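Retro notes (design track)

What went well: tokenization of the new backbones is finally stable.
What didn't: we kept losing track of which sequence belonged to which structure.
Fix going forward: every design gets posted as structure first, then sequence, in one message. First example under the new rule, 631 residues:
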């Protein structure tokens, strides 16, 4: 395609100069452009193809960036990026130095709010709408949220707040529900059923008919009938969104520009909270993605659009996610009490097989991380053994639930923390850098950091047997390639092991960085310990290593601040042992998107970087003068 129209669009102002009749062609070019560029870079696909017409219509009708568009999750913003001056930068999408796969305030004035985690858009748009009122500015704030993201409590907290006036002020916020009847996996829960009934029209007509029969033979009936011709849902019971105080319009076809544009124009000119329900198809316009929206949610790398995603010729290495999925099924076979829970990440968390084999013990609770944790706590109270499979970054949402509902009551809930450490292309919003720091400070919580695939399986087993809350963290992708032993053996609780005996320097590795540590240690002739547990920490091993070496180096793929290295220094202080400690881990800054191996190298966490840091701190042939108070 030669992109005749698209080439002339360097900003939404250019788009608004086009005659309405050209918009269909522009949308077709935009869809083709997005498909072509994702096929070269990888990235989210289905959601972007599904929001092409909506993006064109929004920038055509609204005065962006003056009017604020807030994209929920933000994984559907590629068409928006293309139309807002970033067409030529799509080639660097999600790569080091390139543009982000999510909206970023520092990337463009059209990205009014940074997202990545879901269900924040209505709150943010409401904040912007209220700010406009307070500042006397006449502009609209639009939240675009998917049906999956709408399931989160936060979205409803925002509706609850935005639908009523505050001190006489009512924000001009428009919520657009982009209903494609999909989350990453097929959608779940009562809201999904409700939206389906709204789409079939049954709720709306039932509500009307019900109201009419209630009003019949009263003077209100004729009034209601006439009023209904002009307004919807004000006299008769309306949709749930109307009950929240929004003027509900829809459902309309979100791919039909002739329906979208006049409806948006109409809503743009209305005051107060508006709600537009549009219906779209995930993957629209690309047959393969339409047919299999789960598979085509995102492309992990390049692909030929004519062929679609193909299995690589050589089978890829087993990922930690697969190790977890296999362990979960094996454990469920052994223990009938096991229940697996995912907040809307069945595929990403490796639970497809478990779902198939144990449907009654599988719970996809929707995008509801807080609920997933308290739900697990409730199950644990009754003797069930819940396993919450959750990405490290998304567990941040459920911190209070972890403390208040699980840990204080010392309930045996196993948290299988996937995507621990840097995740690569998704960048800072999805990085699991903080979980060691935020879990180890919780009383009763145990924190396990397996070093490889086999250790991961054994750590999950060990955690599952423990009578209290446990997190087992493991990174995205594959590890050192240590094939898990089928037989499960509980690890010695709170004990690490020495993996290499060397001199002067001892490296205390937590998690998968054990392997680059071993490589670096070969060159430095350093000792290496595989610590396995951040909590309970093997304080005896720490003390022994401190006594027998001139300096310690702690190593983790989590933030240095408050992390495993901090646990070691706390233990040394508590024991009155004075020894120089170099803490290596992720820096106190948000690490950008890009190839994970390159990012780890930039953070100095590959073998060469670890060696360089040790040499820089302690010299090439480390000569460390120990404090006389050393233990
Ligand atoms: C808090 C949080 N939990 C989970 C995710 C992972 N996630 C990203 S997109 C998505 C599905 C969203 O579905 P929907 O909002 O309907 O958008 P669609 O993909 O259908 O366009 C999920 C679960 C996330 N980004 N944020
Ligand atoms: C947008 C979002 O949150 C998910 O689609 C996420 O990008 C999935 O990440 P993984 O590819 O690591 O499962
Ligand atoms: Mg959806």
């Amino acid at each position: 395609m030669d992109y005749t129209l698209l080439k002339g669009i360097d900003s939404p102002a250019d788009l608004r100069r086009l005659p309405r009749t050209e918009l269909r062609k522009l949308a077709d070019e935009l869809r083709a452009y997005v498909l072509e560029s994702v096929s070269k870079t990888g990235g989210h696909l289905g959601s972007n193809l599904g929001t092409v017409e909506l993006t064109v219509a929004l920038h055509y009708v609204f005065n962006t960036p003056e009017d604020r568009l807030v994209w929920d999750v933000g994984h559907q913003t590629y068409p928006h990026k293309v139309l807002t001056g970033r067409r030529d930068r799509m080639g660097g999408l999600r790569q080091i130095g390139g543009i982000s796969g999510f909206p970023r305030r520092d990337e463009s004035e059209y990205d009014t709010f940074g997202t990545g985690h879901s269900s924040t858009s209505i709150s943010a748009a409401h904040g912007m709408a209220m700010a406009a009122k307070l500042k006397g500015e006449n502009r609209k704030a639009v939240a675009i949220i998917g049906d999956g993201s709408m399931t989160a409590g936060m979205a409803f907290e925002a509706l609850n707040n935005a639908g009523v006036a505050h001190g006489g002020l009512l924000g001009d916020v428009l919520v657009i529900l982009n209903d494609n009847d999909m989350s990453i996996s097929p959608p779940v829960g009562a809201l999904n059923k409700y939206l389906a009934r709204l789409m079939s029209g049954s709720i709306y007509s039932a509500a009307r008919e019900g109201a009419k029969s209630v009003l019949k033979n009263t003077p209100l009936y004729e009034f209601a009938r006439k009023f209904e011709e002009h307004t919807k849902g004000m006299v008769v019971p309306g949709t749930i969104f109307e009950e929240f105080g929004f003027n509900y319009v829809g459902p309309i076809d979100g791919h039909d520009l002739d329906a979208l544009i006049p409806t948006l124009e109409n809503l743009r000119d209305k005051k107060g909270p508006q709600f537009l329900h549009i219906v779209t198809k995930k993957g629209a316009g690309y047959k393969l993605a339409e047919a299999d929206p789960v598979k085509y949610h995102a492309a992990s790398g390049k692909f030929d659009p004519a062929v679609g995603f193909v299995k690589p010729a050589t089978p890829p290495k087993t990922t930690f996610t697969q190790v977890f999925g296999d362990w979960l099924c094996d454990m469920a076979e052994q223990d009938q009490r096991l229940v697996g829970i995912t907040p809307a990440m069945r595929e990403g968390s490796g639970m497809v097989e478990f779902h198939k084999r144990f449907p009654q013990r599988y719970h996809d609770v929707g995008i509801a991380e807080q609920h997933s944790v308290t739900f697990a706590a409730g199950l644990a109270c009754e003797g069930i053994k819940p396993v919450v499979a959750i990405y490290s970054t998304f567990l941040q949402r459920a911190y209070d639930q972890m403390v208040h509902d699980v840990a204080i009551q010392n309930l045996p809930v196993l948290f299988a923390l996937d995507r621990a450490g840097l995740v690569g292309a998704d960048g800072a919003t999805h990085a699991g850098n903080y979980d060691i720091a935020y879990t180890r400070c919780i009383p009763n919580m145990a924190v396990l950091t397996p070093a490889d695939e086999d250790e991961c399986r054994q750590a999950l087993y060990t955690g599952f047997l423990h009578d209290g809350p446990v997190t087992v963290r493991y990174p995205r992708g594959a590890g050192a390639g240590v094939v898990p032993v089928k037989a499960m053996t509980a690890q010695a609780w709170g004990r690490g092991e020495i993996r290499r005996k060397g001199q002067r320097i001892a490296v205390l590795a937590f998690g998968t960085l054990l392997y680059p540590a071993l490589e670096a240690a070969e060159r430095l002739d350093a000792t290496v310990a595989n610590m396995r547990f951040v909590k309970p920490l093997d304080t005896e091993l720490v003390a022994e290593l401190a006594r027998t070496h001139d300096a310690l180096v702690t190593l983790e793929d989590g933030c240095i601040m408050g992390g495993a290295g901090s646990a070691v220094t706390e233990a040394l202080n508590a024991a009155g042992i004075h020894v120089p400690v170099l803490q290596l881990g992720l820096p106190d800054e948000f690490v950008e998107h890009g190839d994970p191996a390159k990012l780890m190298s930039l953070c100095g966490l590959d073998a060469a970087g670890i060696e360089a840091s040790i040499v820089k701190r302690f010299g090439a042939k480390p000569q460390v003068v120990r404090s006389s108070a050393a233990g």
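Added context from the reviewer: Residues 320-473 form a domain with the Rossmann fold fold (CATH 3.40.50.970).
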